[in-house]
Design brief:
It contains five helices and six strands. The protein has about 230 residues and is α/β, with parallel strands linked by helices. It has a single domain, classed as Flavodoxin domain (Rossmann fold). Strands 1, 2, 3, 4, 5 and 6 form a six-stranded parallel sheet that branches. Helix 4 links the parallel strand 4 and strand 5. The longest helix has 27 residues. The radius of gyration is 17 Å and the shape is globular. Bound molecules: flavin mononucleotide. The site of flavin mononucleotide has 16 residues, from loops.
């Protein structure tokens, strides 16, 4: 995993820190403490996890399985998944979608609309994020507004960090709030064994916990704010 490139005021490690594969450890062995800081009786945060790659032979499901195994046990989250490999939205936008496209939107859009928060999992393609992910984003507008977005990335040497920075700009345009901390895997394949288990998950798990705790904070704060003052863009 990669560090963020934002310098901290001290020499303390940044929040998304590096891992190097060591001894094999089952990824399910160190599930984070569920729902740390969740207020008793607080409604869980409806969290849509977007799996952003859709190419044949993609590595995305391996990272997605690790991510979902960390998210699903949390009592403060209610997790839904939108996998772009199972989503068929054209790149050509139109206000008069064909029946097929309308049916696909009817399947996907309500999931985005119902979400209080998002976790977007993205690889890096040519220093950015995949076209299918841009397409999903662009087909929607209000569904993203005034909601927090956490970003998990993977790739080659970059760990997908350039894709993450591009997504921050895009989500800002949509009035969404991206979370400061990320989780990123450089040379992603090297972190997982043949069964798709993270070889040494402690640092990645801690980074995910910090990121999701921040996501939940923002989702709760925005939920309260929107109850008091509906967001008007
Ligand atoms: C078209 C394409 C472009 C890529 N460009 C980059 C890149 O710019 N930087 C990088 O670190 N990795 C790059 N990679 C490596 C991918 O991030 C890596 O293979 C990742 O596993 C792809 O995700 P996927 O397997 O879920 O599709 C690229 C891969 C593809 C297919």
């Amino acid at each position: 995993m990669q560090t963020t490139d934002t310098p901290t005021p001290t020499s303390a490690p940044t929040s998304a820190t590096s891992t190097a594969p060591t001894a094999s450890t089952a990824s399910t062995a160190t599930v984070p403490a569920p729902g740390s800081g969740s207020a008793p009786g607080a409604l869980p945060i409806r969290t849509a996890v977007v799996i952003g790659s859709n190419r044949d032979g993609r590595f995305g499901p391996v990272v997605a399985d690790w991510l979902l195994s960390r998210l699903r046990p949390r009592a403060d989250l209610d997790v839904d998944v939108i996998d772009l490999a199972a989503t068929d939205l054209p790149t050509a936008l139109t206000s008069r979608p064909s029946p097929d496209v309308a049916a696909e939107l009817a399947r996907v859009s309500p999931k985005l609309a119902a979400a209080d928060a998002f976790v977007v999992l993205t690889p890096e393609y040519n220093h950015s994020y995949p076209a299918a992910l841009k397409s999903l984003i662009d087909w929607h507008y209000a569904e993203w507004q005034a909601k927090p977005v956490a970003l998990v990335s993977y790739g080659g040497v970059s760990g997908g960090l350039r894709a993450v920075e591009h997504l921050r700009q895009v989500f800002a345009e949509l009035h969404a709030v991206t979370i400061r901390d990320t989780v990123s895997f450089h040379n992603a394949g090297s972190h997982f064994d043949e069964e798709g288990r993270h070889r040494d998950p402690a640092v990645a798990d801690a980074a995910a916990r910090r990121m999701v705790d921040q996501l939940v904070w923002w989702a709760r704060a925005l939920r309260t704010a929107k109850e008091e003052h509906p967001y008007t863009a």
